[in-house]
Amino acid sequence: MAINKPELRFVYYRPHPVNAHFVRVVEVELSDDECRVIMTLLDDAVARIQKGRETYGPLELTSDTRDFVKEANEEVLDNAIYLAMDKVRKRDNP
């Protein structure tokens, strides 16, 4: 008989929708694996933001004129290309 592990409470902070100087705590019930996935995404996102800050300075959305949807689409295509290249390499060099 499988023993169900209790769900873990994942707490994170979000900016208040009206006043960005305040944060609100959001609590959700997540499994251990769900928490691990979120923490991995968070760690990776923080590392990418820090790398961007080192290269371009702090993010300022009010003055940033980039087309984020266009850039995201380009990144998705880049990701697909990298995955295909890896697949070809592994197939050709087992």
Summarize the SSE layout with pairings:
Elements lengths: L7 E8 L7 E8 L1 H25 L11 H25 L2
Antiparallel strand pairs: 1-2
Task: Report on the architecture of this protein.
It is a single chain. This protein has 94 residues and is of the alpha+beta class. It has one domain. The chain contains 2 helices and 2 strands; from the N terminus they run ββαα. A two-stranded antiparallel sheet has the order 1-2. It is extended. The mean pLDDT is 81.
Concise description?
With 94 residues, the protein is α+β, with helices and mostly antiparallel strands. The protein has one domain. The chain has 2 helices and 2 strands; from the N terminus they run ββαα.
List keywords for this structure.
alpha+beta; 2 helices
The protein's oligomeric status is single chain
- Provide mean pLDDT, rounded: 81
As laid out across the biggest beta sheet, the strand order is: 1-2
By secondary-structure content and strand pairing, the structural class works out as alpha+beta
Run of helices and strands: EEHH
Q: What is the number of helices?
A: 2
Distance between the termini: 41 Å
Give the percentage of residues in beta strands: 15-25%
